[in-house]
Amino acid sequence: MRWQQESAVPESNANQALTQEDFFSLLSQQLSMQDPMKPVDNDQMISQMSSFATVDGINNLNDEIQTLNSVMTSNQALQASGLVGQKVLIPSNVGHLGDAGTPVTGVVSAPTGTQNLMVRVEDSTGQVVRTIPVDATAGGNVDFSWDGTDAEGNPLPPGNYSFFAQGLADGANEELPVSTYAHVNSVTLGGADYDTVLNLRGLGGISLGDVLAVAEG
User: Fold this and answer.
1) What's the rounded Cα separation, in Å, for the pair 190 and 67?
2) What is the residue-level pLDDT of the chain in tens, covering all 217 positions?
């Protein structure tokens, strides 16, 4: 009595992709097994080769894009890490007053010839704590600075303060855009699916792509 010997089952190939070598091996077998009286049509063969070349080209392109994404992410991480300890200009009128007496600075975007430009500082309750005159006759991005004191020169507590600018432009009083500088404490590195984030002192995070300018810390 003989036991039927089980035939060996080949292990499944983890990589099921058809390589260029596999394709030409199959093509050679197809040519060797064709009916001499009915050879493979040239157009059909060219179509098969073109299809494989297209798929192979797309796969190579995907690999190159992934490599490029990796390089760009690494480059962005390197640039962002260099911003730690620096000041960045952000599209927000909220600035953070620290406890070391460091002034809060910002920029007002004013038309040329703007007169009587005043920047008012409001605390978290909306109360005006200081009004700062700014010379904006040259127009453009006009810098301003607040030393953290009220109208009587008394130092105010650390925290977040809002800045609003108003000036006389073209014969009419206008509210003008304000941007503030913030200190970069740390960086959260991004990836292919999310942006690199700068963590700002007292203000939370902001995407690296939203930064308007960089200044010395």
Assistant:
1) 16
2) 444 544 444 454 445 555 666 666 766 666 666 656 555 555 565 666 666 567 666 666 666 666 555 555 556 666 677 888 899 999 999 999 997 778 999 999 999 888 999 999 999 999 999 999 999 888 899 999 999 999 999 999 999 999 999 999 888 899 999 999 999 999 887 766 678 899 999 999 999 889 999 988 6
Q: Which amino acid makes up residue 62?
A: N
Count of other CB atoms within 10 angstroms of residue 184? 22
Per the listing, tokens 């690199």 go with 196
What's the pTM value of the predicted model, to 2 decimals? 0.65
Q: Residue 208: what are its φ and ψ, rounded to 5°? A: -55, -35
